[in-house]
Design a protein that fits this description.
alpha+beta; two-stranded antiparallel sheet; 3 helices; 16% helix; extended
Length: 149
């Protein structure tokens, strides 16, 4: 059974302070049922139509998901992983959200644990605001060794 993994849907906003929001994870599709057209291919998986097109103006209107690719896709090109995914044209989770909307969506999604300094009783605990302190030359050697492994 051949499969193809569609890229995740993300939204990025801002210039200096960037918010990068994952709207939908990647999707792995079964390639058993693929309809090919001159300009696009439609993968039908679990009754849902996923259209991949090399031309953003030409795609299957019935598809719930439409993804722009670098060239006209075929089933064989998908199997051979010769298609590069560019961007989502249509996705059920595409939304226009302000930074405030994004921040509000985080409500009750984080779990914080307050660290108590007296609870940290190790040789690495070096006092208020310091946890792990090493000489710069030792850190540099370890980073260099890790890069060249």
């Amino acid at each position: 059974m051949s499969t193809f993994v569609l890229m995740e849907l993300c939204k990025q906003s801002g210039v200096k302070n960037v918010i990068y929001q994952l709207l939908a994870p990647s999707i792995t599709l079964n390639l058993d049922e693929v309809e090919e057209n001159r300009s696009y291919a439609v993968i039908i998986d679990k009754g849902i139509r996923y259209c991949l097109t090399g031309n953003s103006g030409i795609y299957d209107e019935e598809a719930s998901y439409v993804l722009l690719t670098d060239r006209t896709p075929t089933k064989q090109k998908l199997i051979d992983n010769e298609i590069k995914q560019r961007k989502w044209i249509k996705h059920p989770n595409q939304i226009e959200a302000s930074p405030d909307d994004v921040i509000n969506s985080w409500e009750n999604r984080f779990h914080f644990k307050l660290e108590k300094n007296e609870a940290v009783d190790t040789a690495m605990a070096k006092g208020d605001g310091l946890f792990w302190v090493m000489p710069i030359d030792k850190v540099a050697r370890q980073i260099y060794a890790a890069i060249h492994r």
